[in-house]
Amino acid sequence: MVKRFFMKFYLVLIIAFLYIPIAVLVVLSFNASRSRVVWGGFTLKWYQILLHNSDVVAALQNTLTIGFASAAIATGIGLLAAIGIDAMKKRSYSLTLGIGNIPMLNADIVTGIALMLWFSRFTSLGYVSILLAHVTFNIPYVILSILPKLQQMDMSVYEAARDLGANSVTAFFRVVFPMIFPSVVSGFFMALTMSMDDFVVTYFTKGAGINTLSTMIYGELKRGIKPEMYALSTLIFAVVLVVLLLANFVPEIRQKQLKKAAM
Fold this sequence. Notes:
The chain is an all-alpha fold and 263 residues long.
């Protein structure tokens, strides 16, 4: 009885530790006062100011476009790389996978400075350099997501498709790809999350005149965080929450509908 109480208390404590700061952020986004300790009444003006703030809109646009573009490119490259690595012999497989894991284990500041030096030597820093940097550190995460699924797959199904007359491309897209599709989607969203969440690599490779949300908020720290940043963070949290709810409950609803239709 006592053990169960402490287990529940520990769980509640962890959840509170994680979500109380977010709850405070949401409350501050509706606070009419700029103070973080004085409640000035309920207001939506920070959301209105946010929509008319060109700097925030531009930073949000850069964050989204770079995030989705880098995730899509990294997913395509990572998928091809995972297929190639899976077909390697044991020694080459271990060596290649070990080299591919280095960017994930490497410190972000080392990766950021190395990419900054590389781009400064061969091109100018800006939107393209951020995009290429994000693609670079996203690829290993995509490979890590897809490769285990390829190893679990029964290749006899692919060989059967070839025996029935399908060429290698058709057999891949009709047989292999549907089987690994969940891991491909998982790799894409992992890459998207890493890209939108990144600060260090973006800071070193962005150059002048361009910002993402992370670098813009970091710049705001010197002058003090504006209340519209609370509103922006609240909107991002709300979107993520809705996506998670849909991802968890829509499949269950569809499954129940299919069972009812079958009955």
